[in-house]
Amino acid sequence: MSRGISTFAPERLIQVLAARRLSQVQLANMVGVSPATVSKWKAGQQAPTNEVLDRLANVVNLEAEWFTRPLSQACTKPLFRSNATAHVAARNMLETRLAWAIEITEKLEEYVDYPLVNLPVRKFLNPEEITAEDIEQAASECRDLWRLGRAPVPDLALAVESAGIILVREETGIPQIEGLSAWSGSHDRPFILLSADKDNGFRSRFDLAHELGHLILHKHIPRATERDQYKLMEAQAHQFAGAFLLPLETFVNEIRTPVLLDSLLLDKQRWGVSVAAIIMRLVALGMIDEEEKIALFKRRSARWGAKSEPYDDSRAPEKPRLLKRTIEMLVNEGVMTLDSIPRYIGLSAGDIEMLTSLPEGYFKGGATVLTLPTLRDRMSSRPESATERPGKVVEFHRNKQTT
């Protein structure tokens, strides 16, 4: 490597190009270097000088020191809920956003304890070995672990975060991709990123349950490269979402027969699930056949159109709380100042605000704080590993005493 910052991490540059959706030529023009120079940085053959690194950090709105930090241990390859038109660059951008959310979580975990991960354990290695019965059992076990009973879930986002899953919801500008999920490599913690581009609470709940299905059913299965396998894993996550949100034991007893669109609208408002998803659940349970399904979808399209339903705007999307309240608590307790947090994490204030659901401009002023995570003893050094302190993660709602 030629002269320059010896600790410069080329992987950081790759992340920046993906997250900011820049080509090497565009970045070179912004920094004032040649495209060949950026290519050498990216390949690890050369590193920028201090002066050039400052320019690079400034144009992409990041801390210069952030470019010298080694990447966290890799997470599992994210599983996307998307359609075939989703571009590779869009996927790379969202993978990087998810990786940054993982980094934020790990940096904040120096100060707080998050809830223990509480999910059903499944060790499937191939989606073809997963049966419909397996999916129903996994959804039922998840409800039991979370003590949700078999009634409608009032706030799925809260339930997910209470189970130790880190949830991110932000506007991505990529409507083709509705969500993605992965397990972090360092702490084996699950993460979900949902698109906030469509302001539909019913769709958002189903997307969240869909990603939950991926985390449980497909944790040990590599990301699908073949179209048929991808479609199968997506169908299984859909089935899990339906089974989790519309549990067999109670849902079937509430369905009015014959099945009519008007009655399904009432079910939609009670269960927080779209009419389209309810129809698919009825098919999965054998309560209507394929011919009846097609007839219902035709009537639905004729009455409401293909992409919307009545009352879509009656339910606001559920919002993540955990990362937001973690930062609010650290500021409120005087552990960190507003301006120190972006420097500590290394990302821009805007990136952190979007990834943690903080209001725009939060780091320019104060905010009312409601505590949710718990402060770790400030007299202790770096956190012990999970194997050294099993069971010491406190409950979601309980404060830990500080000294």
Automatic annotation (TrEMBL):
It holds the Pfam family Peptidase_M78. GO terms for molecular function: DNA binding. Residues 13-67 form the HTH cro/C1-type domain. The keyword tRNA-binding does not apply. It comes from the Bacteria. Residues 378-403 are annotated as: Disordered. Keywords: DNA-binding. Belongs to the short-chain fatty acyl-CoA assimilation regulator (ScfR) family. This is DNA-binding protein. It comes from Vreelandella nigrificans.
